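Give me structure tokens for this 495-residue protein.
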Amino acid sequence: MQPFDVIVVGKGNAALCAAIAARDETGARVAMLEAAAVDESGGNSRFAGGMMRFVYNSVEDLRLLADISDDEANNTDWDTNTQDQYYDDLYRVTGFRTDPRLSEIMITQSLQAMVWLRSLGVRFVPNYRAASAVVDGRRRFFGGMAIEVSGGGPGLVQYLDAAALKKGIEIFYETRAVSLIYDGERVLGVQAKHAGKVAEYRAGAVILACGGFEANPEWRTRYLGPGWELAKVRGTRFNMGEGLKMALDIGACPYGNWSGRHVTSWERHAPEFGDLALDHACHRHNYPLSLMINADGKRFVDEGAEFYGYTYAKYGEEVFKQPEQFAWQVFDAKVIPLLRPEYHGKVATRVTAQTLEELAGKMEGVNPEGFLKTVREFNAAVRKDIPFNPGIKDGLCTVGIVPPKSNWAQPLDTPPFEAYHTTAGITFTFGGLRIDPETGQVLDVNLHPIPGLYTAGEMVGGLFYFNYPLGSGLVSGTVFGRIAGVAAGAAARAA
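Here you go.
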């Protein structure tokens, strides 16, 4: 087989960005190895919502990316996500463990990366759907997430696919990488299996961008702990950890939160793996407006601690820790009109009632007496002197109960009532490889660069610990995918 300059393993956002950067910015001959068939390709990026967290100081920064009219610009509160805000959010949600240099590069290059994506044909639109609300007749964005990719994750992959094909990048589908070709000094390519046969793909550099181990129940049990083999998987069934294993087998240094994971509230009866046909029908992200109730009929988290983008990636784990690994999100008529469309989709396990007593009898697996007691205590604890405002952290809280509800706490007292059955859905795992942040080159256990080996995307360890600010994953994949692509292409071409 004709050798290439760069082999990219994977075909999600990070992999595509790496391949395009290597081809476009260094002139390298690039091939991609994708384990999935064409219709299932795209990795976890196909299952993403398309929201991307980047630095912006005003609506003028947003207008570099999206077509925003003067009327929209002047009559909307667009929020901000300054460098300082981004640093504060990332350090806070990761318990100040995020790698300083990795996070600095991701944050400071985030807007530039978004502009680069737009130059490749990626279309962005205001995120009216999930990050804004109309308050006192004026639209207000919140959570620093004012822009999303048109068409979500599938749209992002489609745009980047088109760019890759236009630039002459060759893609081998149903070709699962199984090992690195390594002579003891440098990586020389990849061995991969297609149609039951193993072939060699030689190259001057290899970029591993094929995700974590979230689809591998054996690895989940090993690294995340007993019981995690039972969790639903939000995304692709192809992320089995092979890229990590290949790198570790030749002495790459593991790094980051290997027992950590991005886990969200998910439809209780969703399929075992993500299903592209369901789009985002299984997401349950409106829990800040709910009471989350376990089998004992008790609350177990502060639902209103933050906007969902700062808690959703860890609250799924809290749901999974409950008896029988489920919870119910309970709403009343005051907030039901604010629920996202997926709550009323065909796949939602939903029960409705005109009284709380009736609702208690319909919530499968829940102790009715415990639930009614919880609601009575909650309603009595809600402050009455603070107005409800879903567009800000309104401080409408409870007093004297544990756990508290810090924002958006309204009495559950207005029929009809609705409850949604949820469990945990794993998106990706946090453990990865240690890299040189400036190049994306993988380091060995002695912290020396491994010649010819680079990584990007979920496989970069050290960015996320315990939790995750919404939209950072796609931006990390873009920033470090581009960095790895340029460095790998340049090194291969110079060899």
